[in-house]
């Protein structure tokens, strides 16, 4: 699902996908694109990207020049910036979440420094891996000299740990939803009481006003 966010050239993509996914998107010269990813706490995230620049002569996307870079900015659920860095045309970024919730991953190019990109279009291939999908198990097996059975056990332990984090996060979301529902119900109750008091007060005032009117006109 895609939703345009306030501000020129900013598009927010809500990424409710699997813990590991790849996609590509196009951005203009001053455009910024962001992804909202629901991440449990203490979870590692690895992002890899590569860029292609539109070539008018060939009518296709070609690998971008090294001078064209991408700026990556990541905010946690409290809108605190946990990563803000300039990378090259191809890059890799990593971060670990310390608070559960929606994390915003934003990318934009340094196109203002590149006359070659002026008025052009950039294609960005993005691959994001979350949790145990960030582990390079062949490298771990070679480093720790693990057998196939030991490596499989390591993978299962990592998967169980990630499942536990996901369950804790779902409990956290459920608790927040329950607190919001209780707060909303309480506000509705007090608003209903306030409306009832206002109606009663208005009715009593109208009755007294009408009685005074009739007494003044000597109708009662």
Automatic annotation (TrEMBL):
<keyword id="KW-1133">Transmembrane helix</keyword>
<dbReference type="InterPro" id="IPR015720">
    <property type="entry name" value="Emp24-like"/>
</dbReference>
<dbReference type="GO" id="GO:0005789">
    <property type="term" value="C:endoplasmic reticulum membrane"/>
</dbReference>
<dbReference type="Pfam" id="PF01105">
    <property type="entry name" value="EMP24_GP25L"/>
</dbReference>
<keyword id="KW-0256">Endoplasmic reticulum</keyword>
<keyword id="KW-0472">Membrane</keyword>
<feature type="domain" description="GOLD">
    <location>
        <begin position="32"/>
        <end position="130"/>
    </location>
</feature>
<keyword id="KW-0732">Signal</keyword>
<dbReference type="InterPro" id="IPR009038">
    <property type="entry name" value="GOLD_dom"/>
</dbReference>
<keyword id="KW-0812">Transmembrane</keyword>
<feature type="transmembrane region" description="Helical">
    <location>
        <begin position="188"/>
        <end position="207"/>
    </location>
</feature>
<protein>
    <recommendedName>
        <fullName>GOLD domain-containing protein</fullName>
    </recommendedName>
</protein>
<feature type="signal peptide">
    <location>
        <begin position="1"/>
        <end position="22"/>
    </location>
</feature>
<comment type="similarity">
    <text>Belongs to the EMP24/GP25L family.</text>
</comment>
């Amino acid at each position: 699902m895609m939703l345009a966010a306030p501000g020129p050239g900013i598009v927010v993509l809500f990424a409710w996908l699997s813990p590991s996914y790849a996609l590509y998107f196009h951005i203009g010269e001053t455009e910024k694109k962001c992804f909202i990813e629901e991440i449990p706490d203490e979870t590692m995230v690895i992002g890899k990207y590569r860029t292609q620049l539109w070539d008018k002569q060939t009518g296709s996307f070609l690998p971008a020049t090294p001078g064209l870079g991408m700026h990556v900015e990541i905010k946690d659920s409290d809108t605190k910036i946990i990563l803000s860095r300039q990378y090259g045309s191809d890059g890799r970024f990593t971060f670990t979440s310390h608070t559960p919730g929606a994390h915003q991953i934003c990318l934009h190019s340094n196109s203002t420094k590149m006359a070659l990109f002026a008025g052009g279009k950039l294609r960005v291939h993005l691959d994001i891996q979350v949790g145990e999908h960030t582990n390079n198990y062949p490298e771990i097996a070679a480093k720790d000299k693990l057998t196939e059975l030991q490596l499989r056990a390591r993978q299962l332990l990592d998967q169980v740990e990630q499942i536990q984090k996901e369950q804790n996060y779902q409990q956290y979301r459920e608790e927040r939803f329950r607190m919001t529902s209780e707060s909303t119900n309480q506000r509705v109750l007090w608003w209903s009481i306030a409306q009832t008091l206002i109606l009663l007060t208005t009715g009593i005032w109208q009755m007294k006003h009408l009685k005074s009117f009739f007494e003044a006109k000597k109708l009662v």
